[in-house]
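This entry is listed as follows:

___
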Amino acid sequence: MNRAWTGLEKAPPGTLKNRIHGLGLRLLAQVKPSEIFFKSISKEVTNVEVTYPSSLGARLVRRRLRHIAMRGTIIHKKYFYGSVSLLPLTTAFTVLPLPNIPFFWVLFRTYSHWRALQGSEKLLQLVSDSSWTLNSATGNVNETEHDESRHGIHNSAKPTWVLLPSKELEQLLHRGDGHDGLSKCAISDICKVCDLNANDVMKYRDSM
């Protein structure tokens, strides 16, 4: 699949292969940022650090993150099996004297959903851990909670995720808050502070 894509990319402008490559780029642009995010979470990830506006409650942030991870596992598992079921059908296009674009696209989507499923399951595993640490904006640990402590169960292991309330992020959010949500300027400022891709964040906002 990678060799076929490279061949399309190197095709001379104006050729059929070059147009197919352009179509592929437009299709790739439709992939949701959440899927790209889940794919970036490998099995080697051992902890999660979350920076959030200081006005939000830590428990709310944790529940929201667990919801995102759980929703990702459900969605990508469904699309993974759906893509797998389409693979045998797209092999019929191999009789054509052109690259089997439907097969390569479905194969890519199958792999992509599988990677996203693995990432979302890993994230869910990490944020479902009983131990967590709440840090102040300065990075000093000032609180540690265990969900099981009320039942007499204590986990002394190193927390798998850390919550970092940020006053700076809170100020940026209020500065750019409008009737239609955050402005592009506010999102751009937040992305600079948090080292994020502004285009991906805008794309994610528009997909919600």
